[in-house]
Design goal:
Elements (H helix, E strand, L loop, with lengths): L12 E3 L8 H7 L9 H18 L5 E4 L3 H12 L5 E5 L3 H12 L3 E5 L9 H10 L5 E7 L1 E2 L4 E2 L2 H10 L5 E5 L18 E5 L11 E5 L1 H9 L9 H8 L10 H17 L1 H21 L3 E2 L11 E5 L6 H12 L1 E3 L10 E5 L6 H17 L8 H11 L4 H9 L1
Parallel strand pairs: 1-13, 3-4, 3-5, 5-8, 8-9
Antiparallel strand pairs: 2-10, 6-7, 9-10, 11-12, 12-14
Helix pairs in contact: 1-9, 2-9, 5-6, 10-13, 11-12, 12-13
The structure holds pyridoxal-5'-phosphate.
């Protein structure tokens, strides 16, 4: 077995915003014999998973599963719907939007990249004005990152859809939900999204290795005339074989066992409860940050992320030195600052398989780490978070009754 660095005792705190903590239930589900992916048992597994995925994406359309990281699903969304030289409209919300842009350019798309400050989401007014100016309908797609994992900023999708509709523009709307699906409310059909991109290793609580495209009817129609070269990523063959419960090539069987279990866990908790849990933990984390007298990177409170909180370091203090202290002392991994935010921010992941006391442990580690690393701060971050968690705790009598039943 690969030897992980040994720690004296207890569990590592994996508080990066993906990959997230994988529940034991899912690890056990993965630890089963690999079976014949052309056999009858497998078809049953696939069909149950596809139905469960539709519930999570909130769609009645097809969801295509790739044995790939999220980046593969980014590429799949583009090569299935667009043609060489097509213009697309994108927004510089942060590191992940910038990576998606680079990928689009490498595929030969002409990207109009609206500059951003890495502290705010996509402005629907800009979407509307850019599309309204485009009377020839040169833009073929608008691509938005729902939850920008590098900044902890969540763009609200319905106003983006409304902006596209007000401009009466036919561009496809593609949304990256890699760090929001199953953590922050999301509705593919109701919000009029054409392609939703997602990954396994964040809100879905799985190890890395699977990614997804939820495909709307308009995107499927576009895929029939799209001219970008595509082979492995083709939707049509996957969708056709999925109907019978199979895949065009060998699927990631054991990760699919895990996905089946993850979908069961989400169903048991109920998606509205999952979203409420994330929102409540995110609020606790922000109260802690304010209690430390530090600054939340996200500027606009309506765009606060339920999945993670990015925290600005005081000038002259290196976020990565602080993170190293926390890892060495408390065996906790916090998210690093990405590209232009390197050294300037650290990120607290509070998504996926998570509860109140895991959050408390996380925040205690941050507070003690700030002290040990000599970062100036006030001392009552954890206290503020505990107060919020205590006063918003579910009614304990009903919880106790449920446990007794
Ligand atoms: C993690 C993430 C990605 C990258 O996905 P990979 O699985 O690393 O390829 C893309 N977009 C967002 C918003 C992410 O959080």
């Amino acid at each position: 077995m690969f030897q992980l660095d040994s720690h004296p005792s207890g569990r590592h705190f994996l508080q990066i915003p993906g990959p997230t903590n994988v529940p034991d239930r899912i690890l056990r589900a993965i630890d089963q014999p690999t079976i014949d992916h052309r056999g009858p048992e497998f078809a049953r597994l696939t069909l149950e998973i596809l139905a469960g995925l539709q519930d999570v994406f909130r769609t009645t359309g097809p969801v295509v599963i790739y044995p790939a990281s999220g980046t593969g699903a980014w590429e799949a969304a583009l090569v299935n719907t667009l043609s060489p030289g097509d213009r697309v409209l994108m927004f510089e919300t942060g590191h992940f939007a910038t990576l998606w842009r680079t990928l689009a350019e490498r595929l030969g798309l002409a990207v109009d990249f609206v500059p951003g400050d890495w502290r705010s989401g996509v402005d629907p007014a800009v979407v509307e004005s850019r599309l309204a100016e485009d009377r020839a309908h040169a833009f073929k797609a608008v691509m938005v990152v729902h939850n920008e994992t590098s900044t902890g900023v969540t763009t609200r999708i319905p106003p983006i859809r409304e902006a596209i509709d007000r401009a009466a523009h036919p561009a496809l709307l593609m949304v990256d939900t890699i760090s929001s699906l199953a953590s922050i409310d999301y509705r593919h059909d109701e919000w009029g999204v054409d392609v939703t991109v997602a990954g396994s290793q964040k809100g879905l609580m799985l190890p890395p290795g699977l990614s997804f495209n939820a495909v709307g009817a308009k995107a499927l129609a576009a895929s029939r005339s799209a001219k970008l070269p595509r082979a492995y990523w083709r939707w049509d063959e996957a969708i056709a074989q999925n109907r019978q419960g199979y895949f065009p090539s060998t699927p990631a069987t054991n990760l699919l066992y895990g996905l089946h279990e993850a979908l069961a866990m989400l169903r048991e908790e109920g998606l509205p409860n999952v979203f409420a849990r994330h929102a409540r933990h995110a609020e606790a984390a922000r109260r802690a940050v304010r209690g430390w007298g530090l600054e939340i990177l996200c500027r606009n409170p309506t765009e606060y992320s339920g999945s993670l909180t990015a925290v600005l370091m005081p000038d002259g203090h290196d976020a990565d030195a602080f993170r190293r202290t926390v890892l060495a002392q408390f065996d906790m991994s916090l998210g690093t600052g990405l590209s232009r935010l390197a050294g300037r921010v650290f990120r607290i992941g509070h998504l996926g398989f998570f509860n109140d006391l895991m959050l408390c442990g996380t925040l205690c580690g941050v507070e003690m780490g700030l002290e040990l690393a000599g970062v100036p701060h006030r001392k009552n971050g954890v206290g503020e978070a505990l107060e919020w968690l205590r006063t918003t705790a579910a009614d304990t009598t009903t919880t106790a009754q449920r446990h007794a039943a």
